[in-house]
Every structure is written in structure tokens, then in C-alpha cells.
Amino acid sequence: DGGITQSPKYLFRKEGQNVTLSCEQNLNHDAMYWYRQDPGQGLRLIYYSQIVNDFQKGDIAEGYSVSREKKESFPLTVTSAQKNPTAFYLCASSTAGELFFGEGSRLTVL
Amino acid sequence: GQQLNQSPQSMFIQEGEDVSMNCTSSSIFNTWLWYKQDPGEGPVLLIALYKAGELTSNGRLTAQFGITRKDSFLNISASIPSDVGIYFCAGRSGGSNYKLTFGKGTLLTVNP
Fold this sequence. Notes:
heterodimer; A: seven-stranded mixed sheet; four-stranded antiparallel sheet; 11 strands; 54% strand; globular; B: six-stranded mixed sheet; five-stranded antiparallel sheet
């Protein structure tokens, strides 16, 4: 089936550790995105990439990093510089029109 | 940045009732999207709107692209328990082919 796969679904991390969230899509979409979701905050854009080897900061990029070495993959690293990393992270991809989401990864910092 | 105001923030209704929610923008959009999110899952696209004045249905759901291009409405008719979830609107302006602005969501609870 075509779609967007995020892993892991749940992740626990100790303070000071970096963690990488995986996002893979087989929809042949050019653009990919990472959003962060907190209760009552809606969806906030972290990074997005329109083509391979290119990406732009979103509204809340501090403490995060990404790479786009392949069209299908857009991993997100939550670094120790992110002061409040506990959240639900959503990956998405799109053509020029509609945005499609993965099932999300919930990161909890202990 | 662009602002999207989505209302109401939450709704409690009885099964069988109709529901209406809306989003308003401080700027003009050329695309409106409506999503539903179940707990612990990613949002699922319900309806996409591309033209001012457009009215589109998906089963019991109907959405409209406001004529001013600064608002959109979603209506759900004859609600059922599985309609429970968070509904998000999202808009895209002509200045960005890729970035969407999201509303903060409407939490819908349906009492059987």
C-alpha cells in the first residue's frame, strides 16, 4: 500500500540525548514536512523539504535537524538543544495540492 | 505570520445532531483543507477546496470555500459516535506552494 511510515511509534529518551525519528514515503511526493503537535497548540511546522538535498526551517526549527538524501526519506533529529522535546511528531508529504500525514511518533523525555 | 482562527474550540453534541465549525484567516488563501484526527493517530484528509465559493461534499460532510477567500466552513450532518475526534482546517496562500497554516482544531464529542 502507498503511504507514509513513521517509526518508532513511541520513543523515550533521557535528557541530553539526541534521538532520530524516521519518516519514509512511497507516494513519489516531492515535498516532505515535519510538524510538532502539543495539546491545544495545533500543528506547528518544524522543517520542510521541497526536493532532495534541500530543506528549509519552519516556524519552530530550533533544536531540530533534518536531512533529505533520498526522495523517500526525511528523518528528523531532536537534539539535546531542544528544551521541551516531549510531543507528538507528525511527518507529512505532498504534491502541489494536498498534504498526507503519517501516523505519528510520540516522544517522551524522562 | 498568517493566523487561522478555528471555532469552536470544542463541541459536545448528541448523536444525530448536525455540526458546524469554521475557520477564518487574516489573509487570503487559495486552498482550504479539512482534516480529522483520531487520538494517537495522524490527521486524515477529509475535503480539499481550491476555488472561492466552492461547495464540496464527502458523505455526511460538506465544506465550503468562503467567497472572500478568508474563511471556510465544515458541516457534519446526522452525527454518529465515530465522528468523535479533532477536526483541523488548513490553508495555503498563493505565496507558498507548499506551506500550510493550520487552525488549532475543534474537538468534537458525540454522545450516543
